Amino acid sequence: METGEMKLKMYKRDGSKKSELTQIRLAGNVPAILYSSGTTSQKITIDGTELQAALRAIVPGQLSTTLFTLTGEGEEMPVIVKEIQYHPTTYAVRHVDLFLAKPKQTVKVRVPIEYTGTGECQGIKLGGFLRQVIRYVLVECLADKIPATLSLDVRSLAIGQSLRLSGLVFPEGVRPLTDLNEVAVVIAKR
């Protein structure tokens, strides 16, 4: 994986009482659910300070492609974030859904599209602007082969021209689950 691995401490929890969630959050930690294909989900708690530090370190847009390692309870487990719920006014992390990502297991993830060559793009030099129509592509690949981003070079585009998802180069073993005929980017007039 291109993005660096990040470790998070986790603790198993009972989860039978609602007051437990309040106590977890008051202690500065985050309740989470760990999902795994073929097994029942586990209720866990993640160290809130470590999670906040990890979220700040992630390149914007690459949360879905970042591999985390949960440590604790005598275990180490690779996981990816499926969903984060935030408090509506404080934006504090309230809950996290994680998916166990065994290295040789196939996963479906949203990979961000990185648009390259904008500095040399004739359409932008002549006053146009890059309009991203699609920001992510759903792909299927092995958990240890998740690309951090997929690149699309826009330097050859003039004003009014576009590129489709079919212009993306997918690494070996990464299969798109999206219609590649869709327009990904347009150089639009101002």
Summarize the model shown.
The chain has 190 residues and is mainly β. It has helices spanning 18-26, 48-57, 122-125; strands at residues 6-12, 30-35, 42-46, 68-72, 75-86, 93-100, 106-116, 129-132, 136-142, 150-153, 162-164, 175-176, 183-188.
Topology:
Elements: E1 6-12, H1 18-26, E2 30-35, E3 42-46, H2 48-57, E4 68-72, E5 75-86, E6 93-100, E7 106-116, H3 122-125, E8 129-132, E9 136-142, E10 150-153, E11 162-164, E12 175-176, E13 183-188
Parallel strand pairs: 1-4, 2-6, 7-10
Antiparallel strand pairs: 1-3, 2-3, 4-5, 5-6, 7-9, 8-13, 9-12, 11-13
User: What order do the SSEs take from the amino end to the carboxyl end, as H and E?
Assistant: EHEEHEEEEHEEEEEE
How is the CATH topology of the largest domain named? Ribosomal Protein L25, Chain P
Annotated CATH homologous superfamily of the largest domain: Ribosomal Protein L25, Chain P
Instruction: Provide mean pLDDT, rounded.
Output: 90
CATH class of the largest domain: Mainly Beta
How are strands sequenced across the largest beta sheet? 1-3-2-6-5-4
What would you call the quaternary organization? Answer: single chain
> In whole angstroms, how far apart are the ends?
38 Å
User: What is the share of helical residues?
Assistant: 10-25%
Radius of gyration: 20 Å
The computed structural class is mainly beta
Question: What about the largest sheet?
Answer: 6 strands, mixed, barrel
User: What is the number of helices?
Assistant: 3
